[in-house]
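haha ok so turns out i had the wrong file open the whole time. this is the CORRECT one, sorry everyone. sequence first:
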Amino acid sequence: MSKSSNTFAVSERVTHFMYGPGTITEIGAVYTTIDFDENGRRKFVTTMVQLEPTTILAPVPVKKSKAKAKTPKEAKEVKEPKSAKAGK
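then structure:
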């Protein structure tokens, strides 16, 4: 049986008939925002959205590895100004 989002709380896991399982991120007087596992973040009219509670756990976020630091390029030879060469 579907329930409106008024009966759920932020961070609660729910499922939507079209978008699948997700986590409620915001519940407002007008809009409810849900971050779905496979369909991204969606915003619904709070009084109209039909949700079901779910026991499906949220996916573990993939940690992005830090980019390796670039090694500085070897310094190019510094050319002497023309006036310095003339004095030699």
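Strands lie at 13-16, 20-27, 31-36, 40-45, 52-53.
again sry for the mixup
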